[in-house]
Design brief:
This protein is an alpha/beta fold and 241 residues long. The protein has a single domain, classed as Rossmann fold. It has a seven-stranded mixed sheet, sandwiched between helices. β4, α5 and β5 form a beta-alpha-beta unit. It is globular, with a radius of gyration of 17 Å. It binds S-adenosylmethionine. The site of S-adenosylmethionine (SAM) has 22 residues, from α3 and β2.
Length: 241
């Protein structure tokens, strides 16, 4: 599982960011977690292993769900980790199903954030937590495209950290933590660029794997956006009140 981590944690800072989300939450073997926008399943398999819990991932892209199921079978955790194709805005789950939910680098493609948070709120049990790790909008203008989540502004929907807080509250969540990870992201970017300059592989390769040649432009636009205060990576912990 660890050997796959540079490829199957498909979000900024890869496994390092997943470890931070794991440190923010509380989960145990009796819990059933929801991974919203689960990609090819790296985080879902990681959480199932770390906490001994059950994880269901949902993702809009059928091909990602196919790869997620295949890797999950290969790694022998299919008894605890499952994937469903579906839209985060209308999830095929009954109300009050899950003990906790997390979503990593997904909301940047969702225009109606309050509808997104309301739908998560619906499927969580009372008192359940929601952890988010994503990119927020800074106050110095729009980022340059392509970025890792959007080829153009047409499919990019960023909220500021404050808009994120208010949207969660409007959907019925209590926001327990909201902090930026700008310094960590910039240090990670520098570490990646140094590795490449030395002729080594960068620590995180999922974006290169999925996006091929334009990955370098995406990384450069992200680095510039962070430096100029246009992009702010954030982590959030909220609870269904
Ligand atoms: C950058 S990837 C992150 C994947 C995964 N969270 C991870 O960190 O490895 C974003 C994922 O969100 C999914 N996605 C985007 N919009 C969605 C929606 N409305 N409902 C469900 N999944 C969505 C995409 O298909 C993609 O797999």
């Amino acid at each position: 599982m660890e050997a796959l981590a540079p490829y199957d944690h498909f979000h900024g800072r890869g496994l390092e960011a997943t470890l931070e989300v794991a440190a923010m939450i509380q989960a145990g073997p009796a819990d059933h977690l929801l991974d919203i926008g689960s990609g090819i399943g790296g985080p879902a398999r990681f959480f199932a292993k770390r906490f001994g819990c059950k994880v269901t991932g949902i993702d809009l892209t059928p091909e990602f769900c196919d790869v997620a199921r295949h890797l999950t079978r290969l790694l022998g955790v299919e008894d605890r980790v499952a994937f469903k194709v579906g839209d985060a805005l209308a999830m095929p789950f009954a109300g009050t199903t899950f003990d906790g939910a997390y979503s990593m680098n997904v909301s940047m493609n969702i225009a109606d954030k309050v509808a997104f948070y309301r739908e998560i709120h619906r499927v969580l049990k009372p008192g359940a937590w929601l952890a988010l790790s994503e990119v927020a909008k800074g106050d110095s203008g729009e980022p340059d495209y392509p970025t890792p989540w959007a080829e153009s502004a047409r499919t990019s929907f960023l909220a500021t950290p404050e808009e994120t807080r208010r949207g969660l509250q409007e959907a019925g969540f209590e926001v327990l933590q909201l902090h930026d990870t700008l310094a960590k992201s910039r240090e990670y970017g520098e570490r990646s660029r140094s590795a490449v300059a030395r002729g080594d592989k960068p620590p995180h390769r999922a974006v290169i794997l999925v996006h091929g040649e334009i990955a370098a432009r995406m990384a450069a636009n992200t680095a510039r956006g962070q430096k100029e205060g246009r992009l702010i990576p954030i982590e959030v912990l909220a609870r269904k009140a």
